[in-house]
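Write out this protein's structure.
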Amino acid sequence: MVSAPALFSACNAIALAAWLVLALSLFVPRMRPWTFPLTGLVLPGLFALAYCGALAAGLGSGGGGFGSIEEVRTLFANDHALTAGWIHYLAFDLFVGTWIARKFLAAGVPPFLILPCLALTFLVGPAGLLLALIVGLSTGRLNREALT
């Protein structure tokens, strides 16, 4: 079994590299055919596997749960459960960032407006999504058709 600190570090490094490639692909269109599947499918899928392994290693050792903030605090006192929680963020934020890049480029949003949305999504996921929605709606480039 991989230690929680080693898994945490490896997933962080992979996520950082993926975000850099995703950001670069905004300005290098020939990268997109392989970048979007990598960052929107392959890596989130691998993070999901790592998440399941870390979660399994963390459950049943020390209690905790999801019924109250105290139970969540107790659950995340376990390094494997805490690592699973972090990988959860990495997987979903990368998936959402790729969605933003794909949809917004397809809708004609300029890359220089997408880049801050990706940076915020990487750092503080939901705030980046909120900025992306504001940018998309305020530029008139994002509508119901662009979201489907």
